[in-house]
Design brief:
The protein contains eight helices and 18 strands. The strands form two sheets. Strands 1, 2, 3, 4, 5, 6, 7, 8 and 18 form a nine-stranded mixed beta sheet that branches. Strands 9, 10, 11, 12, 13, 14, 15, 16 and 17 form a nine-stranded mixed beta sheet that branches. Strand 12 and strand 13 form a beta hairpin. The structure holds pyridoxal-5'-phosphate and 2-OXO-4-methylpentanoic acid. The site of 2-OXO-4-methylpentanoic acid has 6 residues, from loops. Pyridoxal-5'-phosphate (PLP) binds next to helix 6 and strand 15.
Length: 354
């Protein structure tokens, strides 16, 4: 398939790299490709970034048949641009696609198209410390139809956004509220996919946490509301007695690439790491016995996000001493050092983009 490139004749000024925040600015070009039952995926093109015109009956707008990914391009000290485990993101996009009845994409083709887009947009990859170019591949159902069924037509697009820190707290510990009123996902559902409705369904709990003075929620399982699943839109780790515990992938947890990277790094350091069920009662017991020293979230956007306080009903658990714990710091540094090629990539995780 030939990739057409239409250059934007009106490029935008680049933003101040020290004030980026997350997901507010977008580059000059985007990738688009269409799916129809007869032509399959076709017409791949890079064209000026811009709005879509859509029929108001477009299926994704009504039934949420849409999926996305989140990954980043990093500028190294030598000026080169690289990706971190990008095939894992496109494979996960295909996993989400299968669960949402969306036709899958060719991973190598998508990666090639992304690299071409990054070549066109290379000047948009920021170089200030802690910044990167966030990549958002997305597939949406485009049939104009109000019956409930899988769409016959789709649009696959990739947009790019230069970003700094995800949370306004940056890498400082965040306050988290355990939600008892809401669940994010259930076994047999779509919690292990990046489908749009999961994020819509998380908003009210997030808003309630925010109103109570907390940054995000900690999600318990959807059946018994007993076992810890995720924190906000991140996976979660506990440090208990110097060992790492993270909830086992249960079918309702998003299999995070940062989570997998942290587990593999821990194993390479001979740090004990266990993927298991962990109940909120156990977390509280470990805290009360003094064995729970750190909690942190993991995800592409924030990398590692330390938790400084956990609220569960009337109980407030202060985690650590209010500063970033040594193990969260160790993972944060190790993962970013690989992403920015500040150390040798012995894991084979980075790949040149341009
Ligand atoms: N959990 C949810 C619900 C997410 O949306 C994400 C973000 O992608 C993650 C966890 C972390 O996954 P990853 O480390 O692949 O970014
Ligand atoms: C993550 O990268 O950790 C995320 O959850 C991305 C979010 C903006 C959906």
């Amino acid at each position: 398939m030939k990739l057409e490139i239409i250059t934007n004749q009106n490029p935008k000024p680049k933003p101040d790299e020290t004030k980026l925040g997350f997901g507010t600015r977008f580059t000059d070009h985007m990738f688009n490709m269409d799916y129809t039952p007869d032509l399959k995926w076709h017409n791949p093109r890079i064209e000026p970034y811009g709005p879509f015109t859509m029929d108001p009956a477009t299926m994704v707008l009504h039934y949420g048949q849409g999926i996305f990914e989140g990954m980043k391009a990093y500028r190294t000290e030598s000026g080169s641009i690289q990706l971190f485990r990008p095939r894992d993101n496109f494979k996960r996009l295909n996993y989400s696609a299968r669960k949402l009845c969306i036709p899958d994409i060719d991973v190598e083709f998508a990666l090639g198209a992304l690299k071409e887009l990054l070549r066109v947009e290379k000047d948009w990859v920021p170089s200030a410390p802690g910044t990167s170019l966030y990549i958002r591949p997305t597939i949406i159902a485009t049939d104009p139809f109000l019956g409930v069924r899988a769409s016959n037509t789709y649009r696959f697009f990739i947009i790019l956004s230069p970003v700094g820190a995800y949370y306004s707290e940056g890498f400082n510990p965040v306050k988290i509220m355990v939600t008892r009123d809401h669940v994010r996902a259930v076994r047999g559902g779509v919690g292990d996919t990046k489908t749009m409705g999961n994020y819509a369904a998380s908003l009210l709990a997030g808003q309630e946490a925010h109103d109570a003075g907390y940054t995000q929620v900690l999600w318990l399982d959807g059946v018994e509301q007993k076992y810890v699943e995720e924190v906000g839109a991140m996976n979660i780790f506990f440090v208990v007695n110097n060992a790492l515990i993270t909830p086992a992938l249960s079918g309702s947890i998003l299999p995070g690439i940062t989570r997998d990277s942290a587990i593999r790094l821990a194993k390479s350091w001979d740090m004990p790491v266990s993927e298991q069920k962990i109940s909120i009662d156990e977390v509280i017991a470990h805290h009360n016995s003094g064995l729970l020293t750190e909690i942190f979230g993991s995800g592409t956007a924030a990398v590692i996000s330390p938790v400084g306080e956990l609220k569960y009903g009337d109980q407030i658990l202060k985690i650590g001493d209010g500063t970033v714990g040594p193990i969260a710091q160790k993972f944060f540094d190790a993962i970013m050092d690989i992403q920015y090629s500040r150390v040798e990539d012995t894991m084979g995780w980075v790949e040149p983009a341009v």
